[in-house]
């Protein structure tokens, strides 16, 4: 695994990925941030040695290197999910590569469904904590101790300093930014009414199918991470409406400019 990671990293360095400072993972329907970047290099996932390939039709599958808000960034335009058949190691492989490239901070976005009745479609939620309801762990493999401590502390998985800056930027720009708990489930099916009730009972404010594996590995690598959910649908079990994935993508794209404002503002200040 270590050999594969170094092969991948060496390939990207040869392609011109020169000491990026910030890593960014873009979630479902969230690709407009690319328009804000001065792109210096971009490589399709299927050209990168040992890299997984995005199989979801609305995930582009490119690794992009460039300048954003005066900082060198490397951006995943399209992420990987367990529901695509990938392992936990596959899903988190890019985070380990980013770290080897030199990334010092990680920003993650996702599209999620609200469980908290106060969180409405088109609003944003800053992740303060999470519930890992996905199978397995990205740290449960032989040799993990060669990459970092095996028993990673997750008492504060999201970086308090970066989260505080994001909240400040939201106030300055009059952006409604909730702060809550994200539940990660396997998917790809959406939740039943009973499952929405269960997730509310155990303390989740929003639910999605990503992010948590990457956050766990970021903590394993001592890589400070912040994550924002774009609320694209509302999981009200007493008035549950059928979900159309195209509507979710459209809602994500509608709300994304606010997320871009937050990410760009944060990158300027860190």
UniProtKB/TrEMBL annotation:
Coiled coil: none
CDD domains: PNP-EcPNPII_like
Keywords: Glycosyltransferase, Transferase
GO cellular component: cytoplasm
Nucleoside phosphorylase domain span: 21-267
Enzyme class: transferase
Presence of keyword Glycosyltransferase: yes
InterPro entries on file: Nucleoside_phosphorylase_d (IPR000845), Nucleoside_phosphorylase_sf (IPR035994), Purine_phosphorylase (IPR011268)
PANTHER family referenced in this protein's UniProt entry, alphabetically: METHYLTHIOADENOSINE/PURINE NUCLEOSIDE PHOSPHORYLASE, PURINE NUCLEOSIDE PHOSPHORYLASE-RELATED
Function: The purine nucleoside phosphorylases catalyze the phosphorolytic breakdown of the N-glycosidic bond in the beta-(deoxy)ribonucleoside molecules, with the formation of the corresponding free purine bases and pentose-1-phosphate.
Entry similarity comment: Belongs to the PNP/MTAP phosphorylase family.
Name under which the protein is recorded: Purine nucleoside phosphorylase
Species annotation: Antarcticibacterium flavum
